[in-house]
Amino acid sequence: MRKYDQIAGFNRQRIEAISDGVFAIALTLLILDIKVPVSETIHGEKDLLKAFVGLAPKLLSYFLSFMTLGIYWSAHSSQFHYISKSDRHLNWINLFFLLFVSVIPFTTAFLSEFITFKFAIFIYWLNLTLLGGMLALNWRYAKKNQFLSLNESELVRVSSAIKRRIIEAQSLYSIGAVLCFFNTYLSIAVFIAIQLHYALAISFCRNK
User: Fold this and answer.
1) String of b and e for 44-56 (b: at least 16 CB within 10 Å)?
2) Is 12 among the domain residues?
3) Widest distance between CA atoms in the chain
4) How far lies 131's CA from each of 40, 98, 126, 136, 140, in Å?
5) Residue 31 lies in a domain
């Protein structure tokens, strides 16, 4: 009788389906941390404006994390465009990736609540690092086990682009995190700049 590991996890479409579902829920949960000001405390336009300005840290964190999830969803989707097979181990690699996706609403809320604390920046950066690490592991495992629908020349080109993207992004996130020792808002501003760089496909090198 064949071992269970040899017969389980071959339905690649199930990975994509649950991934889209988890991303959709995580994206929705982000906004739930932002509460409308209590009407009883609002007695005029100035009160309302002051209450809205008080939401700035949460709105900033929400924007950052919405971009973050969008970028990682796009990266995950790009990988599975080329992954044509799967097995039980690839399933679990992706489930752990989704574990860190589902944590984003918490690390976002933690960051928005303690936005002036370096430890909050560290926790958020750690979340980003684990996401990047699992994406790298996902691609490495699929490549090693020949799950990719690419010929040799395409494999070199696509694999190189994916690896460079992950290494570059994680390096930039690390630089952004270190900046919290100067100012936590500076770290967040750099994180947002990095996300805009990837979301809008902005590049400082035209031929890159």
Assistant:
1) eeeeeeeeeeeee
2) yes
3) 75
4) 41, 8, 9, 9, 14
5) yes
The answer to whether residue 32 sits within a structural domain is yes
What tokens were used for 120? 């909050």
The pair of structure tokens assigned to 102 is 């589902």
Considering the domain boundaries, does residue 165 fall inside one? yes
Instruction: Give the pLDDT confidence of 110-142 residue by residue, as tens digits.
Output: 998 898 999 999 999 999 999 999 999 999 999
> Are 84 and 12 within 8 A, CB to CB?
yes
- State in Å, rounded, how far the first CA of the chain is from the last one: 51
Q: Identify the domain containing residue 93 by its residue range.
A: 4-199
The answer to whether residues 111 and 156 touch, using CB atoms and an 8 Å cutoff, is: no
Task: State the DSSP string of 84-142.
Answer: ----HHHHHHHHHHHHHHHHHHHHHHHHHHTTT-HHHHHHHHHHHHHHHHHHHHHHHHH
The answer to whether the pTM exceeds 0.90 is: no
Structural domain total, the chain: 1
Amino acid at residue number 186:
L
Percent of the chain at pLDDT > 70 equals 91
